[in-house]
Specification:
2 copies of one chain form a homodimer. Chain A starts with 7 loop residues before the first helix and ends with a helix. Chain A has 2 domains: 8-71, Orthogonal Bundle (Arc Repressor Mutant, subunit A); 78-227, GntR ligand-binding domain-like (Four Helix Bundle (Hemerythrin (Met), subunit A)). Chain A has helices at 8-22, 34-41, 45-57, 77-90, 94-114, 121-136, 142-154, 159-173, 184-200, 203-227, and strands spanning 61-64, 68-71. Chain A has a two-stranded antiparallel ribbon. The first copy, chain A, is mainly α. Chains A and B meet through helix 1, helix 3, helix 4, helix 5 and helix 8 of A and helix 1, helix 3, helix 4, helix 5 and helix 8 of B. Chain A binds a DNA duplex through residues 7-9, 33-35, 43-47, 49-50, 52, 63-69. Chains A, B: This is GntR family transcriptional regulator.
Chain lengths: 228, 228
Amino acid sequence: MAIQKTSLVDIAIDRIKSYIYEHNLKPNDKFFSEKELINKLQVSRTVIREALISLQAVGILQVKSGGGVYVAEPKLDPIHTILKHRYSTYGVKIKELMQTREIIELGALRLIIENQIDVDIDHLKALNDSYYETIMKNEDTKKYDRLFHESLIKATQNTTYCTFAEMVNEYFSLVKINEKEDGLLLAYKQHDEMIEAIRERSLQRAQQVMKKHFEPIFYLIHQMEDNK
Amino acid sequence: MAIQKTSLVDIAIDRIKSYIYEHNLKPNDKFFSEKELINKLQVSRTVIREALISLQAVGILQVKSGGGVYVAEPKLDPIHTILKHRYSTYGVKIKELMQTREIIELGALRLIIENQIDVDIDHLKALNDSYYETIMKNEDTKKYDRLFHESLIKATQNTTYCTFAEMVNEYFSLVKINEKEDGLLLAYKQHDEMIEAIRERSLQRAQQVMKKHFEPIFYLIHQMEDNK
DNA sequence: TAAATAAAATTGGTCTGACAATATTATACC
DNA sequence: GGTATAATATTGTCAGACCAATTTTATTTA
């Protein structure tokens, strides 16, 4: 006689996951319907439904109302949910997060230059030009700044690195930070200098500029910490 | 009259999450029971249960059989599940992952040295000594190697950085890589040299050794790519 | 009175059956 | 063949029941 230490739902979840991986199912593949799973696993519809709901929550399955069950496209949304919970519980030291971001960006420069990756310099320049325009027009500058840094990460052509960098940025998006309005032009120039350094394949120069680029933020954080 | 575009379960999930965050509930706080939620949200037990299951899957709630519902301690387990799905779907270029790991470790050295963090040198030495012993005794070396690198990350005293590094390592644990048995002694010496470099606060030297430390792995990867 | 034990109440786990809402498929029509 | 319609399949929600695990309360005992 078998000892049922875990719940039926957990068992169902395990068996469904195993099936997906052993049969190498890919995103958007149609999966079994609830009824089929009931027959296959010999449990009630309740158990099947709760297993499906659970697998949907972590982005493994996608249940379409009236349309059936499908293997889901891996998204970072559930991770965002999880990080949000973590943030809400532990909080996050803004300084720690900025240090992490700095390391990620310095690392991107290293990956690009040491591996001699071909970078679309014009694209970076175009983004930075748009950034310049928003500064001049006194519009919202955040968008193009973010795009510039994102493009820098993507330029590594390392999708794994991009994924994790994206997670860090997701985490960052949960934090509110008052940004100073001065220094925008300086940031623009630093972007430009980074592009130049990348073109020259000078890691040291690129990283030096990047560190300068982060300095005002750390100065701000330092001030905040002193004030409290 | 309201249009019900999302499912009741999704609405329940949102309302429960909102309640947790707005009331600033912390891990291990007792949450409402199913019955209470039924009265509160005016939906069937099915809907409540599916919402709870979903929130449990992403590590926000913990449902204890017979004991009630609690706010969960943030864990990385759900993220591990998600990354595993991602890995199984897209695969992961081992080279990309190792590059990411290298960046993380180089970054750790930078954080430690530039911020002049006090590092427990003796602890690192002790771990490396244990590593040495397992080499000599021809036992499993992986454990102490992993502990050494983990300690290096933790030495940054940047918990945010540690969290993300842990995710990368979780991802790494999914990948099987044949490691060569030679070069273990070299690795031991490199660990030791890193410790020395940290003690001297020499970022350049520490990073140089770390890069040397990763070289054989990249060489291996390079060979594998050539062979296929 | 305090601790150990037993009973009761609470709470989550699973099952069944039913009907509604939605998506897919088959059919009839032009 | 294409389109509108009907039939079918599938998921969403509800209600009620019973079991299992846990907690609370009551009772007994030292």
